[in-house]
Amino acid sequence: MNIAQRLQRSFKPRFAVIYPFGLFVMFFCSLDEASIRAGIGFIIAGALIRLWSNGYAIKNDKLTSSGPYAFVRNPLYLGTFLIATGFVIVLKSDPRWLEWTIGGMFLLALCFVYYRTIKDEQDMLLAKFANAYSDYCKKVPAMVPCLVPYNKGEKWPFNLQRLINSKEHKPVFWIFILLVIFHIKTRILIEHKALNDASWNLVTAALFLIIIDAAYEFNKKKFQPKA
Question: Where are the domains of the chain?
Answer without folding.
Answer: 3-223
